[in-house]
Amino acid sequence: MPQQLAIIVLVDVGNAIADGTLDGNTYLFDNMKLHGSDGQGTGGLVTAINGAYWADGSQASEQVLNWLPYSLGSIPPTVPRGYQSDRARQTDREALAELDALAARPAAGADTAGRLDKIRKSVGTRIKTTRRTSGRLSNEKVLDVTGEVVGDLGTGSYSYPGPIITDIYGEAVDEKIMYPAEYGSPDMVTDGWYWSATVDTSRPGSYAYTMRIQLHKLVVQDGQALWHPVNLTCTSSLRITSEPKRNAFTKAGMGYLPVPMHAPPTEGYAGTDAVTESARSTG
Amino acid sequence: MKPQVNIMAVVDVIGALSARTLLDGNLCMVDNGDYRSTGQGTPALCTLVCPGQAVQWTALAVDLQTPVDIKSIRFLDPLGGEGVAWQPQHAAPIAANGGFPHANGSDASLSNGEAGAGSAGDSDTLDLDVWIGLVPPWMTPGVPYKYRLELQMYEGDNSIMHVDLPALMSV
Predict the structure, then answer these.
(1) Which fold has domain B4-78+116-170?
(2) How is chain B split into domains, by residue range?
(3) In terms of domain of life, where is this protein from (chain A) (predicted)?
């Protein structure tokens, strides 16, 4: 079993916002299928956590859970962090160049209004910066999943900001089965933050927990676009088992290693003599 | 003399599965023994031990989210054959047979080359195995006893790999 377990929380952001619920719009995966997790790829994931204990009953292995929220139908989180700002600046530069060209040839006349309209669309829609969105969502434009700016919010489909886990709580936390917390991370794929928990495997059983997840809905207010936070919840559970550690050689207590009674030939073991000498001199 | 020597097998699971080999830097073995073990940091680690010392093997993944467990440890048969098959009577707890596992004088099973070392259980319970044992008194000093270290990385046709390079040597 890996020491650290990953739980992927994949959210269909557009449909979750439209439905006002994460039920049916969340897909959970973990890397514990081999160890008995159920419901992979559904909203009903049960994460199997197989603990171990020593002969004296003490916990023998630690499990760490990491939650990674991803968005379905968004620009992947693996593109460079400055991508959205870069696109915003690039489209501004392109629009300025086109305006320059238009100003240099005013005689084109009849089509000026049409060309201005085209430029307006290619500039896209800049997101209004508010106190709430002054960080990661500021100075950006609305993009579609291919990274093109969206000029007409009424018709275009656009890429939502990724989901953010803002809390993990519920039975598994209340019962002190796991101790979740949010940590800073140098990994910008997770936006610099991630939720992680250590698990107490000494009390086997099934324990539910709830994740509070923040999505962002695009609203147009006074002619300006802004991302409005939407807080929703989804539940999952942990199934904890615990088994005793065992001696792999004897299946019981400590015994001699199964070393053959015949001594191996010394030929073919380059450097054996030197090794022996140095060993003896230090021994 | 330390009562216990720890041997750590550090595995780059993704590297090993991609290249289908534990060599080329995908397996790095180290120990904390008292003597000058050779091959530290390579798959050809030769750990120097004393009779009566406990030796414990542990596998660790470089990427903590990748699974790796020890599937088996078999000392290679010096008389030929694939490896030393594990028979439970050879490793019976010392207390149960007066402290000498080969008291009956038979070592035929040491050369039968069959699989069977280590856990007979499923791959998903390998993490319960503790690979620890005592260095027996019958090892000839100064002679490396090579062993096969078999590792399992998740499940499937290509998930199990081994190296025959590491060894224990009594001083």
Answers:
(1) Immunoglobulin-like (2.60.40)
(2) 4-78+116-170
(3) Bacteria
